[in-house]
Amino acid sequence: MATAQYKGLDSIDIADIEAVGVNSDVAAEFHEKLNKIVDHYGPATPQTWHRVSKDLLTPDLPFSLHQIMYYGCYKDFGLDPPAWLPDPGSAKSTNVGQLLERCGEEFLGSKYKDPISSFSDFQEFSVSNPEVYWKAVFEEMNVSFSVPPQCILCEDPSHPGGKWLPGARLNPAKHCLSLNGKRTSNDIALIWRNEGEDEAPLGKMTLEELRSEVWAVAHAIETLGLEKGSSIAIDMPMDVNSVVIYLAIVLAGYVVVSIADSFAPNEISTRLILSKAKAIFTQDFIARGEKRIPLYSRVVDAESPMAIVIPNRASSLSIKLRDGDIAWHDFLERVKESKELKFDAVELPTEAFTNILFSSGTTGEPKAIPWSVITPLKAAADGWCHMDIQKGDVVAWPTNLGWMMGPWLVYASLLNGASMALYNGSPLGSGFAKFVQDANVTMLGVIPSIVRTWKTTNCTSGFDWSTIRCFGSTGEASSVDEYLWLMGRAQYKPVIEYCGGTEIGGGFVTGSLLQPQSLAAFSTAAMGCSLFIIDKDGSPIPPGVPGIGELALGPFIFGSSSTLLNADHYKVYFKGMPTWNGKVLRRHGDVIEYTCRGYYRAQGRADDTMNLGGIKVSSLEIERICNAVDDDILETAAIGVPPAGGGPEKLVIVVVFKDANKPNHSLNKLMIAFNSALQKKLNPLFKVSNIVALPSLPRTATNKVMRRVLRQQFTEANNGL
Fold first, then answer.
1. Long-range contacts of residues 578-584, Cβ cutoff 8 Å, at least 24 apart
2. What is the pLDDT of residue 663?
3. Among 123-137, 415-429, 573-587, 646-660, which stretch is predicted with the lowest mean pLDDT?
4. CATH 3.30.300.30 occupies which residues in the chain?
5. Looking at residues 449-475, what average pLDDT do you find?
6. In whole angstroms, what is the distance from residue 367 CA to residue 375 CA?
7. Distance between CA 626 and CA 651 in Å, rounded?
């Protein structure tokens, strides 16, 4: 948002405050306190905004007043004004702060000063000294191995990403359930509430209760007679049952196949085939308000293997099952005699798979990405370092096990001794806002489209979010104004932007509670990661030099993928990439900017994969469906266009008709048809924002559609959407 329209804080008078709807008495008191802050810190410094945001602005004041303060303070600041500053005292109590206070001099020598000023040096240390860094993190998270690794990282020319923890054996689900010096059996592991039961007491499950539930399901899975290492799918909402099932599958030495509960039958079928799943856990239906969304019937239409079917909030199923499928009650009855018996975890080699997830590439078929045994440790380590998840925290992040943030939430919460907060329903209304309040959530994860809905509907009004210590945000590009609003709901706690990928198991660029945070920007490469921006000549820009270009990653990323089930991993991530210090860099595909103030800003995808509502999807997948909607269509091109004010991409379909004189008035009907087809055949969350008719599509000499050119032309012509 342009700041020229705003007054500097030293020019604001009482009338300006009253003009946004503040009564005269409150306005006068606010103005008096504002003047004292301006007199002490000046009208336009980060410290001024820090004090204004902490001491003056409250959630019940009009957001327009928050805007006047923020944009007025930073009227002439330029790019990347800090919306949050770390406190030196609080910094020392963070996970990283405590580690650095004990070991900072050991790690960094005389360079170490304090957790805040030495954080960047520590991040570089995590890259250059993986042996020391990861041993320290494992100790902090109480990770142990049934067989210890020969080393942390073994560089191998045949594996560009190196071999991590060679020779080690462990089971990440076992660590989620284990007792240690920081966790007891009576600690709360799960907190939940069902939509529509907003006045009911919260559901809670202790670690001891969770252990018993997981053991029982693991014993029951053994009765299915599947070979160890077999794949078992989960197509369910993220609730207590699905978390228990997820942990039980991994504990028993099988592989979870993650399928989002929003997928159509053909998408479910594709994932079951690629993963060679031998069974699937699902639910009879999903309840959303008065709606009953079928789930089991989709699984049946996908011609799934044997299904274990859980009833929705009822004691019995409301549907008849196929021959060979098993009702949840009958499944658990198989092991009722051994329900309380401990299940001995299957210790796995570090290269073994624990989870198969899917991410769309540019081929039209989703990439099948296995998570190894150590990928969960990467997810948990990111939570430990960047979101500062600690024992006693309550972590909520509306997501699903079909997307990487579902498994991420399981591991980042439980491996760090925190409680996982699950709301079984839509996060878009006041019910979820009340759940955040009642559960005393301390770390709330979001995607920008959720925040946009909260801001538009004001559904969080009246709820106390003061227990929140920080927000996390991932999935899509965020908007400065919307995230200013979000921070204001919790007395200006920081937003930790988090960008990574399913194939990374976490983030590669993010934020930190030890650095100033700027809205819609990343303040640091993730721990253990090094970032490179490729210039127009195909060479990496030297580290620390401002610039914009396609992002590449240093090859040694703990927990990242080393294989794909349906593609050549080397070809996808390493072939044709430049080198740095003799090491070939890893392709990612985002365009990113490194600013003169040391922040990173995402600029969208460099390839033809777009990001819609936090879901990466191939243009080809969308085009294949749109091309079949109307016989008059010759071809289509699907592009993601960022809105003018920032935020997640909007889906635009460029249409070429067989008859170039096709009248434009038919485009509205075509948009309805596109949306219906995409939502039925691909994902019910997808929505076309605009249709453009062109006589032809721009193409390369080899006949490839230049979607990037279309994206640029549409953005420039329309100034975004």
1. 578/534, 578/538, 578/539, 578/540, 578/552, 580/532, 580/540, 580/554, 583/160, 583/554, 583/555, 583/556, 584/160, 584/555
2. 61
3. 646-660
4. 608-718
5. 94
6. 17
7. 12
Rg (CA), the chain: 26
Stretch 642-649: mean pLDDT, rounded?
Answer: 76
pLDDT in tens, 206-255: 999 999 999 999 999 999 999 999 999 999 999 999 999 999 999 999 99
Quote the strand ranges of 118-230, DSSP E.
153-156, 159-164, 169-170, 188-194, 203-206
The secondary structure of residue 476, as a DSSP letter, is S
257: nearest Cα among 293, 281, 287: 281
Euclidean distance between CA atoms 251 and 243, whole angstroms: 12
CA 436 to chain centre: 18
Q: What's CA 363's distance to the chain center, in Å?
A: 23
Structure tokens at 501: 């990928």
Distance CA 214, CA 217 (A): 5
- CB burial of residue 616 (10 Å; 0-12, 13-18, 19+): buried
Q: Are strands 495-497 and 470-473 parallel, antiparallel or unpaired?
A: parallel
The two tokens of residue 665 are 């008035």
Q: Are the beta carbons of 265 and 273 closer than 8 angstroms?
A: no
Please name the fold of domain 608-718.
GMP Synthetase; Chain A, domain 3 (3.30.300)
Confidence check: pLDDT of 573 > 50: yes
Pick from 225, 192, 188: which is nearest to 206 by CA? 188
Domain(s) labelled CATH 3.40.50.12780 in the chain stretch across 170-573
Q: What ranges make up the beta strands (E) of 606-687?
A: 609-612, 615-618, 633-641, 650-657
The CATH code of the domain at 170-573 is: 3.40.50.12780
What does the pLDDT look like over 520-555, one tens digit per residue? Answer: 999 999 999 999 999 878 889 988 899 888 899 999
With contact defined as beta carbons under 8 Å apart, do 641 and 663 qualify? no
DSSP state letters, 225-237:
-PPTT-EEEEES-
Look at residue 573 and give its three-state secondary structure: helix
Distance (Å, whole) CA 422 – CA 436: 10
pLDDT confidence of residue 648: 77
Q: What is the pTM of this model?
A: 0.87
